[in-house]
Design brief:
Strand order of the largest sheet: 1-2-3-14-4-15-21-17-19
Bound molecules: manganese (II) ion
Low-confidence stretches: none
Number of helices: 12
Helix content: 25-40%
Number of strands: 23
Strand content: 25-35%
Largest sheet: 9 strands, mixed
Length: 440
C-alpha cells in the first residue's frame, strides 16, 4: 500500500495514470507494440499499447494460441473531477475566476472550499503541446471553489432539495486577485490571470479551446485510522483496480493463456469515445497480438480470440457505510475489510443495464480464488430500487467473452477522499494474480 499511495499521488488524471503505468511496464521489459512492429523485434513476450495518451493495454503472451482466448482484467483510469471550460477565464467583483464543467458523478458540495490542483495539456496554435501541473508541490499555489457562509445560507438554501442547492455553473475556481494595467482598462483581473499564464507557460486565452485541464483535489493519499489500516485518497475509483491489475500483470510468470490488463478512459461518463470501453481498442490490440505472434489475423480468428477470453471487470463496489446502512441490503452488501468483492450483476431496477455474469463463470472464479486462498466476498450495489450503477463489464461482454465485476469495496466512493482497506487492496492484487495464472 505504500507504493499504491505513491501511484495515486502521481496518477491524478487518466493521462498521468497512463504515464505511470507505462513507466512501470517499461522498467519490467514491456515493449511498445509499434516499436516492436517497426523494428521487427522477435521473441518479445511483454507488450504494451497506448492509445490517445489515456487508454492502454499490457499483455504477457502465453504459450497457448491466442485464438483460445486470453485472461483479461479491465479497469478504468479516469475519475470524477472538474474540467476547465473552453472559454474559462473571467472576472467578477475584482476576482479572476475560471469556469469549470464537472466530469462524472460528483456530489457538488464535495468540491467547495477545498484546495484543488490543475493538471492537463494545452495544444497551442503552433501545435506545441504544453503539460501543466499546478498545485501538487507544497510550494505551488492551489485553486478553490468558494462556498457560502452558514450565516447567510439559510434563506437561499435552507428549504431547497440538496440536488437544487448546488449548481454546476457555480463551481468556478478562484484564480487571482491582482489586476493588470491602469484603472482605465477593462477586465484587469481577468488580464492579471491571463498575463501570468502567458508569462509562465506561454499560452493565450484562445489556447484553452484546445486544452484538457482538470481540477482535482490537491491533497495526497494518507493513512486512515489509529491503526493505519486504511488508505484515504482521491481517485481510488478506479485506480485501486488499475494499480492492483498492473502489479498483478507485472508479477505474472509467462502464463499458458495470454494475460492482458486493460486501462480504459471515459468510464465515469459512460465509456463512450475512442478511449472508452465501448470503442474497438481491445479488438485492435487483440488483432495486433495475433499479428505479432504469427497467427491468423482474419475476422474469424479475432472473433474466436475475443469470445474465448475470460474477463474480470476490475472496478470498485460500495462498502456498507455505518452511517448509511439503510441504502444497502445487509445480506448482500460488501463490507470494508472483507476481501475482494465479486459483483455478479450491476445495473438499476430489475438488473437493467447489467451483463449479469453466468453461474458457470462465477463458479470458475470462485474456484480460482478458493484454490489460491483469496479472501473474497460478494456484493450488490445498494438495495433494490435504491439507485444503482454500471461498469465496463457489459461493453466487454458484448463480444461474447465471460465477464465478472470484481474489485475492492470502498467508502465515500466518488468523493475527494475515498477510503479503502489496505487488506482488501492486497487481496485484490493476489486475486488478480491468481486469475492471470489460471490456465483453463
Ligand atoms: Mn469505477
Ligand atoms: Mn465511478
Amino acid at each position: 500500500n505504500e507504493n499504491y499511495k505513491k501511484f495515486l499521488n502521481k496518477s491524478k488524471t487518466e493521462r498521468k495514470a497512463a504515464g505511470q503505468i507505462i513507466k512501470a511496464a517499461e522498467a519490467q521489459g514491456f515493449v511498445d507494440i509499434d516499436t516492436l512492429v517497426t523494428k521487427k523485434l522477435k521473441n518479445v513476450k511483454k507488450i504494451y499499447k497506448i492509445f490517445q495518451g489515456r487508454c492502454l493495454a499490457l499483455a504477457v503472451l502465453g504459450e497457448k494460441n491466442l485464438v483460445s482466448g486470453a485472461n483479461i482484467i479491465a479497469s478504468h483510469i479516469d475519475s470524477p473531477r472538474l474540467d476547465l471550460k473552453q472559454n474559462t477565464v473571467y472576472e467578477d467583483l475584482s476576482i479572476g475566476l475560471m469556469k469549470t464543467h464537472y466530469y462524472g458523478g460528483i456530489r457538488k458540495y464535495h468540491w467547495l472550499a477545498v484546495p484543488l490542483a490543475l493538471h492537463g495539456i494545452i495544444i497551442k496554435s503552433n501545435n506545441e503541446k504544453i503539460n501543466i501541473t499546478i498545485g501538487e508541490d507544497p510550494d505551488d499555489p492551489v485553486f478553490t471553489v468558494t462556498d457560502l457562509l452558514p450565516h447567510l445560507a439559510g434563506k437561499i438554501q435552507g428549504n431547497k432539495k440538496i440536488s437544487d442547492v448546488f449548481e454546476g455553473e457555480k463551481l468556478n475556481l478562484v484564480a487571482g486577485s491582482i489586476p493588470l494595467g491602469s484603472d482605465e482598462e477593462k477586465d484587469r483581473f481577468k488580464l492579471g490571470v491571463l498575463n501570468l499564464l502567458y508569462e509562465k507557460y506561454g499560452f493565450t486565452e484562445e489556447d484553452f479551446i484546445s486544452a484538457e485541464i482538470e481540477a482535482v483535489p490537491a491533497e495526497k493519499a494518507r493513512d486512515v485510522g489509529f491503526d493505519r489500516s486504511m488508505t484515504g485518497s482521491y481517485g481510488q475509483d478506479d485506480r485501486v483496480c488499475a494499480y492492483t491489475a498492473l502489479e498483478a500483470i507485472l508479477n505474472t510468470q509467462p502464463p499458458d493463456r495470454t494475460a492482458i490488463a486493460l486501462f480504459f478512459d471515459k468510464e465515469e461518463i459512460g465509456s463512450d469515445g475512442n478511449s472508452g470501453a465501448k470503442s474497438n481498442f481491445l479488438e485492435d490490440f487483440m488483432s495486433d497480438l495475433l499479428f505479432i505472434s504469427g497467427q491468423k489475423t482474419d475476422n474469424r480468428s479475432l472473433r474466436k480470440a475475443m469470445i474465448n477470453s475470460s474477463c474480470l471487470s476490475a472496478d470498485v463496489n460500495a462498502a456498507m457505510d455505518p452511517d448509511y446502512k439503510e441504502v444497502h441490503e445487509a445480506m448482500n452488501a460488501a463490507k470494508l475489510g472483507f476481501g475482494l468483492c465479486m459483483t455478479k450483476f450491476t445495473g438499476v431496477g430489475g438488473k437493467s443495464g447489467s451483463s449479469d455474469a453466468s453461474a458457470e463463470f462465477v463458479g470458475k472464479i470462485r474456484q480460482i480464488f478458493n484454490k489460491n486462498k483469496i479472501v473474497w466476498q460478494t456484493g450488490e450495489l445498494g438495495k433494490i430500487d435504491q439507485g444503482g450503477g454500471g461498469t465496463v463489464a457489459k461493453f466487454l461482454a458484448k463480444s461474447g467473452m465471460n465477464v465478472l465485476d470484481c474489485g475492492p469495496a470502498i467508502l465515500s466512493m466518488h468523493s475527494p477522499f475515498e477510503v479503502s482497506s489496505k487488506a482488501d487492496v492486497y487481496m485484490t492484487y493476489l486475486g488478480y494474480k491468481a486469475f492471470y495464472s489460471d490456465n483453463d
